[in-house]
């Protein structure tokens, strides 16, 4: 068993059993890029007695973190709109004046593929530096076929340039271009772009923005119908600024996740529970927009809806480049516990992406791990602006 490695002298938060799954004096055997065995060091199987030892000096190890909702590929920034909001303008007012998502569209259309890749890699490096092993990247700042495809190609290329697993999401139904009828846009741009992206192998899932300033449930349903015909799972930005019925729609389509959720109702929560959808909480957008209505975390708990936490890293409403800070904000602003926050960036985030081979430290899973200079996993949510990462293990490579 000379090819195997055995991690010892470590505390392991395996994220099993509904909590941290903490093993105080743990050992983890890694072979072929996978976790071969994990448990108490006193119970290491004889088969791994001669494995290459890796002593982690009593540190904590968790699954590598997963950022399951980002917009890492985009051009420009919207610092000017940040100033406008501080001067009293609302998100809706900025959007209706030609700002918001549409303003980023111009910058993204104008940027070359290489320029978009260079800026996306800087953002990816920040997440890798906090122990992230998987990141979801959405399109949605093109709103034309050429740019939507360009964004998705760049997202795929991020994984070619960095030790990072990238899951891509087509978000053609993100905003209505200025002066364009929403229904015409769905028919003439969004659906053809989805078909082209799928044909090119660029899409892992399909998303939309169901909101008064974006698309109605009926319009999103047309996008989801095409996604399902192509065999692609769906997810949805829903109930962020108002209640439009998007969450119920997403549940009807068996959505992997529904994201934001500040304005969901008890009926929406029950629909999510029945559908098995994950609630992706995005405290960065809540904070940046200075919103007041919080997602009903208690109702999500009561109905057993799994909760994930993500950065929603984007240039306008959540310029948040730290998943660790998102965990702290989810606890401080939304009332999650530290164990919920860590599960929200590991096993539940994996579920939100439809991934079954990561997110816990269990045999058969990918050996994507994060090693931390902390004594207890609650410290990962406790710190504000603190990065205690010692090292990240990706695919078993130490």
Fold and architecture overview:
The chain has 15 helices and 14 strands. It has helices at 79-86, 91-96, 101-110, 113-128, 145-161, 182-199, 217-229, 246-252, 266-275, 283-288, 297-302, 323-334, 338-344, 347-352, 379-382, and strands at residues 5-13, 22-31, 34-40, 52-63, 65-67, 132-138, 165-173, 205-210, 235-238, 257-260, 278-281, 307-309, 369-372, 389-393. The strands form 2 sheets. An 8-stranded parallel beta sheet has the order 5-6-7-8-9-10-11-12. A 6-stranded mixed beta sheet has the order 3-2-1-4-13-14, with no helix packed on it. Helix 6 packs parallel to helix 7 (217-229). The longest helix is centred in the middle third of the chain and has 18 residues, at 182-199.
Identify the notable features of this structure and list them briefly.
398 residues; globular; six-stranded mixed beta sheet; 22% strand; eight-stranded parallel beta sheet; 37% helix; 15 helices; alpha/beta
Low-confidence stretches: none
Please give the number of β-strands.
Answer: 14
Main β-sheet: number of strands, strand sense, barrel status? 8 strands, parallel
Mean pLDDT: 96
Please identify the structural class as seen in this structure. Answer: alpha/beta
Helix content: 25-40%
Number of helices: 15
N- to C-terminal separation? Answer: 17 Å
Shape: globular
Radius of gyration, CA atoms, in whole angstroms: 21 Å
The amount of beta strand, in percent, is 15-25%
Adjacency order of strands in the biggest sheet: 5-6-7-8-9-10-11-12
């Amino acid at each position: 068993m000379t090819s195997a490695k055995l991690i010892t002298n470590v505390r392991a938060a395996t994220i099993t059993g509904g909590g941290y799954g903490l093993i105080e004096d743990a050992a983890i055997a890694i072979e072929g890029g996978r976790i071969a065995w994990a448990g108490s060091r006193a119970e290491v199987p004889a088969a791994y007695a001669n494995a290459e030892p890796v002593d982690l000096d009593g540190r904590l190890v968790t699954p590598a973190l997963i950022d399951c909702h980002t917009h890492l590929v985009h051009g420009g920034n919207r610092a000017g709109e940040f100033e406008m909001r501080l001067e009293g303008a609302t998100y809706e007012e900025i959007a209706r004046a030609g700002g918001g998502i549409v303003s980023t569209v111009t910058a993204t259309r104008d940027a070359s593929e290489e320029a978009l890749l260079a800026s996306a890699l800087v953002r990816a490096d920040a997440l890798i530096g906090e122990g992230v092993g998987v990141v979801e990247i959405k399109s949605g700042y093109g709103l034309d076929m050429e740019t939507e495809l360009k964004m998705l190609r760049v997202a795929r290329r991020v994984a070619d340039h960095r030790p990072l697993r990238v899951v891509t999401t087509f978000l053609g139904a993100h905003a209505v271009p200025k002066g364009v009828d929403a229904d015409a846009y769905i028919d003439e741009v969004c659906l053809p772009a989805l078909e082209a992206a799928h044909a090119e192998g660029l899409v892992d899932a399909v998303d939309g923005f169901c909101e008064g300033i974006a698309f109605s449930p009926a319009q999103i349903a047309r996008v989801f119908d095409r996604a399902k015909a192509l065999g692609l799972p769906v997810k949805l930005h829903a109930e962020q600024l108002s209640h439009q019925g998007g969450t119920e729609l997403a549940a009807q389509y068996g959505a992997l996740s529904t994201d934001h959720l500040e304005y969901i109702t008890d009926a929406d929560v029950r629909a999510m529970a029945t559908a098995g959808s994950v609630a992706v909480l995005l405290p960065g957008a809540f904070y940046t927009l200075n919103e007041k209505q919080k997602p009903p975390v208690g109702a999500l708990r009561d109905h057993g809806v799994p909760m994930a936490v993500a950065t929603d890293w984007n240039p306008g409403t959540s310029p948040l480049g730290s998943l660790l800070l998102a965990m702290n904000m989810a606890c401080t602003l939304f009332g999650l516990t530290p164990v919920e926050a860590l599960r929200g960036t590991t096993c539940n985030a994996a579920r939100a992406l439809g991934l079954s081979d990561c997110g816990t430290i269990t045999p058969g899973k990918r050996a994507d791990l994060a090693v931390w200079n902390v004594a207890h996993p609650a410290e990962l949510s406790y710190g504000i602006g603190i990065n205690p990462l010692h090292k990240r293990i990706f695919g078993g490579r130490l």
